[in-house]
Structures are given as C-alpha cells and as structure tokens.
C-alpha cells in the first residue's frame, strides 16, 4: 500500500531537522510540494536545501502541486472564515489526490515537508484526513514532528515561553484584534499579516518578535511594545518588500509590578 510521510522540517534551518526526519526523508520516493509561486520561492529553496543536505540517494522526485486560490477577505465573519478555509482545503485535497494517484505507485512512499511542525497551524493533516474520507486513493501515513517557530522564537530571544505557574496561549492574530485579554499575561501570536499588536494600548506589554527564524535572514526585535511597535511595523514591511514574503511570530508578555524575574522588559534590539 502507498505510504505518506508528513515530515516537520522546522522553521527553515537544515540543521534543525531531527534524526527521525532525516531517516524518513531517505525512505521517500516522491516529495510533494505545494507551489505558492515566485513570491514565496524562498520556502521552496529551504526545502531544496534540506533535501540536498540530508537525502543520501539521488533517486527521488519532486512533484509540484499548484496552490489553489483562497478567499482572504479581511471582513469575513468567523463563520465565513471557516467556510473559506473549508473550501480551500477541499480544493487542495482534490489537487493532492490527483497528484498521488498520478505520481505515486501502489507501493510507493511519498512525503510532504511541512514548515515547522505538522500539528501547529498547518492544514496538511486535516487535508490528509479529508483524502482518506474521500476514498479515491488508499494509503497509510505517518507524522514526524518538527521544531516549531514558537520554539525557535523563544530560543533566539533566550526567554522561556511561560513564567512560573502561568499558561501560554498560542493564537492567530485575528483572534486578539481587540487586545490581549485581561488575566492572560503571555501569548504567542502567529499568522499576522501586519503587526496587530501595534494597535494595543497597554503599557505593561513587552514583545519578543522574530522573522525568518533560524535562517540566515533571521531578524529579531524586542522591548516594551509601546517603544518598538513602530520599528517592528516598519521592519516587517521592509523585509516583505525585499524578500517577497515573510514568516514571523511574536511573544507578548504583560509585566506586573508584583512579578519579577524572567519577562521584565529588555532593551530594544533590531537588525
């Protein structure tokens, strides 16, 4: 039976791929790659470097699958957003299904290299479940975890994600557009098309921001949010214009007078 390997590739640096992932790479006959166009060619370049460094044999193939269009209207309601994502997943599933049927033999091993870890804000596992439910192609699949951008962010800034006894909250930016909720003092923000936190009126917040984490283009800024928000906004716009794409994330931490230790505001740093 066909087998699919869903491999977490980390945030981009080829040294951050795990030994388990390297072993999986060397079992694959075909690597399926979602082609997001020239604007995001840097994502494919990172995948190609991982294959070049870690796959020992030359006998694999790379099959590009076009990225279907997605409704990214900023005024979508919560229900409308979920419907748009479902439509996008269905379109992706149809294209991936066709590629598997055409390019992977009955006993072949195919692989997807997933940015970061397949379990965190990635659609691959949901789409694979959708493919199995459709029943047009049969396969087994295995998930190999990877380093996330959340871990890379904390390591780059040399901070723990949570303070003692406190939870950590990971959220897309659209869910905190009105500000960080009172009582929630640490949050990692992902999938932010701009820099949503720039609009927060909360002098107690500190931010640890990073783009292109663990790559040669890594850029870090940290400090009191009120002092560095404009710098982050401008830097992000400049980097996106320079590279044609950007992947970034940030940790927001609310400082309290009755709490000391890790999490106190550091001096700002930047590129």
What topology emerges from the helices and strands here?
Blueprint lengths: L2 E6 L10 H7 L4 E6 L5 H14 L6 E6 L11 H26 L5 E6 L9 H11 L5 E5 L4 H9 L11 E4 L13 E5 L14 E7 L7 E6 H19 L4 E7 L17
Parallel strand pairs: 1-4, 1-5, 2-3, 2-4, 6-7
Antiparallel strand pairs: 7-10, 8-9, 8-10
Helix pairs in contact: 3-4
Helicity, in percent? 25-40%
The total tally of domains equals 2
- The Rg value, from CA coordinates, equals 20 Å
Corresponding CATH architecture of the largest domain: 3-Layer(aba) Sandwich
Q: In DSSP terms, counting alpha (H) and pi (I) runs of 4 or more, how many helices? A: 6
Number of beta strands: 10
Structural class: alpha/beta
Mean pLDDT: 88
- CATH topology name of the largest domain, in short, is Cobalt-precorrin-4 Transmethylase, domain 1
Explain this structure.
- With 271 residues, the protein is of the alpha/beta class.
- The chain folds into two domains: 3-144, 3-Layer(aba) Sandwich (Cobalt-precorrin-4 Transmethylase, domain 1), CATH 3.40.1010; 149-254, Tetrapyrrole methylase, C-terminal domain (Methyltransferase, Cobalt-precorrin-4 Transmethylase, Domain 2, 2-Layer Sandwich).
- Helix content is 32%, strand content 21%.
- The protein is built from six helices and ten strands.
- It has a five-stranded parallel sheet with strand order 3-2-4-1-5, sandwiched between helices.
- The longest helix is centred in the middle third of the chain and has 26 residues, at 78-103.
- The radius of gyration is 20 Å and the shape is globular.
- The N and C termini lie far apart (50 Å).
- Mean pLDDT is 88; it is low at 258-271.
């Amino acid at each position: 039976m066909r087998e699919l390997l869903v491999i977490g590739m980390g945030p981009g640096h080829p040294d951050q791929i795990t030994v388990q992932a390297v072993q999986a790479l060397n079992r694959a006959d075909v690597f399926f790659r979602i082609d997001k166009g020239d604007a995001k060619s840097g994502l494919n370049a990172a995948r190609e470097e991982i294959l070049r460094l870690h796959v020992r044999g030359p006998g694999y193939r790379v099959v590009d699958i076009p990225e279907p269009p997605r409704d990214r209207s900023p005024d979508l309601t919560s229900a409308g957003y979920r419907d748009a994502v479902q439509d996008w997943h269905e379109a992706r599933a149809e294209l991936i299904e066709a590629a598997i049927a055409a390019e992977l033999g009955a006993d072949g091993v195919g692989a997807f290299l997933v940015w970061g870890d397949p379990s965190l804000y990635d659609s691959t596992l949901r789409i694979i479940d959708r493919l199995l439910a459709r029943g047009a192609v049969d396969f087994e699949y295995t998930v190999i975890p990877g380093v996330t951008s959340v871990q890379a962010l904390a390591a780059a800034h040399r901070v723990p994600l949570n303070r003692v006894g406190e939870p950590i909250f990971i959220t897309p930016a659209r869910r905190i557009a009105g500000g960080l909720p009172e009582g929630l003092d640490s949050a990692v923000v992902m999938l932010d098309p701009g820099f949503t936190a720039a609009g927060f009126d909360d002098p107690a917040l500190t931010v640890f921001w990073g783009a292109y984490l663990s790559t040669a283009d890594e850029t870090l800024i940290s400090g009191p949010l009120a002092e560095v928000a404009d710098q982050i906004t401008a830097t992000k716009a400049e980097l996106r214009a320079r590279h044609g794409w950007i992947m970034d994330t940030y940790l927001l931490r609310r400082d309290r007078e009755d709490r000391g230790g890790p999490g106190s505001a550091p001096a700002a740093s930047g590129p």
